[in-house]
User: What shape does this take?
Amino acid sequence: MVRLRKSRLASRADRHELYQESVQDTEAEIDFVQETWRDLRDRPAELLREDFCGTANTACEWVRRDPGHYAIGVDLDEDVLQWGELNNLSQLDEDQLSRIQLLHENVLETDPGLADIVLAMNFSYYLFLAREELLDYFRCVHAGLMDDGIFFLDAYGGYDAPKEITEERECDGFTYIWEQASFNPIDAAMTCHIHFEFPDGSRMDKAFSYHWRLWTLPEIRELLTEAGFSEVAVYWEGTDETTHEGNGIYEPSETGDADPGWVCYLVAQR
Ligand SMILES: C[S@@+](CC[C@H](N)C(=O)[O-])C[C@H]1O[C@@H](n2cnc3c(N)ncnc32)[C@H](O)[C@@H]1O
Assistant: This one.
């Protein structure tokens, strides 16, 4: 008699689904983008370009929010775009679907028409290792925005950021594991991995790997200004007085806390 082996949870899991559940919070991200746009501009934003869009989860959230919203997602990886089509765009209704387009292109070369908003989230631009390359990218974004357009990007840092450490976080039905595998202080290049672990002990190792540069906020701000952006503000997270943890509210600030780990937004006005 053939004994059927019970398939383990890791082998049945989908890495993009796990990523979306553990890494992304597209509703909070688009809330921040919409509120900040409303604070800074007197007209509604229509076209949002999501650079490094991966599964285009955020672009989908944008078109779901308002019938006047259009989105373009840009990514180099055809497989991840296809996954996004099959799993995220397929959830949109016909009207929403008619307002979103995915481009299999390099963000350094894309020129899909002027956007009101460009997003570069989850630190994807850290993949540019050289100053000239990041400056080129920021110039390309600047050229791709309407005159009153706004570029939103996030950044992370803190005194734990360059450490070779592993952190775990419990999610619904799995553990998210972030590994800072190596850091080179000479060029600030680092290799990081995302692993997932399941209650039956099975693991999905190196579900995602990134070789990127740990850019600092002053470097990023200076490069955005050099690329032509007129106002570049850092939006720092406030602190909950009871828990002393981040409260999810980001405000423009010129001073931040010397925390072990922080995430913030940069808002660059064209
Ligand atoms: C860290 S993931 C970010 C996914 C998503 N933006 C998010 O917020 O979670 C980085 C994505 O950038 C894409 N990518 C890397 N270099 C690129 C480039 N030069 N042009 C376009 N996409 C690029 C990768 O294929 C990958 O899907």
